[in-house]
Amino acid sequence: MREVIAIADCSGGGPAGPPLVFWAGRFVREACGVFGVFGVPAAARLTYLGLYALQHRGQESSGMVVGDGRRWRHHVGMGLVDQVYDPAALLQWEGDLAIGHNRYSTSGTSSLENAQPVFLERGSVPLALCHNGNLLNPEALAPGLPPGTSDTRALAEALAVNAEDWEIHLLDTLARIEGAYSLLIL
Fold this sequence. Notes:
alpha+beta, 6 helices
C-alpha cells in the first residue's frame, strides 16, 4: 500500500513573527511551509511541487531531504523554490521518502546554515528535521550553540544522540520544549 502524507502548518508567529496579511476580512500571519511524503516513487519531484505550492509561506530559503531509508540526499539553498532546485535534476534523486521546508525566519539569522531541513549524521542513523513554529527555550535543549543559531538546529542537536531507545528520547525531548510547533522527522 502506498501512502502520501502532506503537511502544511498554519501556525502564526509571535509579536516578532511574520508580517500580517489581510485576507477574507481578517489579519492572517504567514510562516514557514513544511511538506512530507512517504512511500511514493519519485518523492523528490512531489516534494518540489508541494514546496512550490507552499511558496507563499516562506521565501527566504528552501530545502529537502530525500531517501530510501539507507541513502539520503540533502539539498538546501537561499531563495525561492524555483531558484533552489533544478526540476530536471530532481528526477535523479532516488527515494520514496522526503521532507521539505520553505523558511520564513522567526529565530536565527537568515543564512544557509539555518536553512531547513537540518540534516545531521551522528552515529549509525542520520536525522533530518523540518520545523515550523517558535521554540521558547532552545538554549535549554542544546546549550552552548553560537548566537544566531536557529531553534530548529537546537532541537536537531538535542535529538541527534545515540540513545538506546530513540522513541523514549524523542518523547522526553519534546516534553521539555516550550512553545508551539510542528515537526517532520526522518
